[in-house]
Design the sequence.
DNA sequence: TGTAGTTAGTAAGATTACCTGACTATATTG
DNA sequence: CAATATAGTCAGGTAATCTTACTAACTACA
């Protein structure tokens, strides 16, 4: 019998995600990227940092429409985080690629994520945090397959 | 050595949360509550189902402004999910309480959460799911304390 | 006990992050 | 080559937030 806080799974996930997001946004703002908002994270989360991605691919991964992703990408392009290049393999398509500035943010996001993991590890204990991470990973993998 | 999918913690949490939310919304829509949107969940998540809650309390728990919570509550009141009663202990304040319709949704949300947990348990195995739930609970508790 | 400060809620207006529908240009395929 | 599908954009709308400003009511203390 697990001791149950009364929080639903949904509430728990929401709490943790918002804690992680807040930490990330503080870090980005402190590093001078205050013009990045939460919604933009979706782009950095799903973009292929080396080869670039297509708009529709990004939209699919993020689970939003092409138009919505276009809106986010327009902004990031204006602010110099990404660039749109013609896709040599398809005349309809454009490759969305991180600029140097965008790559710096990409790296910082991953660093910040590590910090969050570390902070939670400090609270929870290293073993438990490792276990949690592993379970989250496994579940996400299974959900991805199950579609 | 954990096999790492390359997903950040933030990405993992986002994926799981969106899966849970989609399931919940499908359930609600199927039960005839198609007028409820994701943002409204925050109210049902934080409201005191027996005694009712204050607007500012709800806003605090949900991490949004009073005005934003007011916007959500206005809608739920129009649709008959909640009612605003004068708070007998404070003339400035109003008690926000679930109507019968609102209580049905409240219950359904918890049922749906159980279904999600069950589905994940089926994928992951009962023991691992139990463990995951326990770790999430523990971490949320610790984060709550640490503020 | 009256006034200063605090708290609960509302109002008005702006912005952001999405959506749907319609369109153009290019690719793919029978 | 014609029909269909795909990549992206444009136009317009709505939902969910925010900030600033306000009123009413409560609390505390000189």
Sequence:
């Amino acid at each position: 019998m697990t001791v149950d806080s009364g929080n639903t799974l949904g509430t728990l996930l929401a709490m943790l995600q918002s804690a992680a997001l807040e930490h990330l946004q503080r870090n980005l703002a402190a590093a001078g990227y205050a013009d990045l908002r939460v919604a933009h994270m979706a782009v950095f989360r799903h973009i292929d940092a080396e080869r670039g991605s297509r708009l529709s691919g990004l939209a699919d991964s993020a689970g939003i429409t092409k138009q919505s992703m276009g809106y986010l990408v327009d902004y990031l392009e204006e602010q110099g985080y990404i660039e749109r290049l013609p896709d040599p393999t398809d005349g309809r398509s454009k490759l969305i690629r991180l600029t140097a500035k965008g790559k710096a943010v990409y790296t910082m996001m991953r660093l910040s994520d590590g910090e969050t993991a570390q902070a939670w590890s400090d609270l929870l204990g290293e073993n438990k945090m490792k276990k949690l991470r592993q379970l989250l990973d496994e579940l996400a993998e299974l959900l991805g397959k199950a579609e």
Remarks:
- The longest helix of chain B spans residues 100-124.
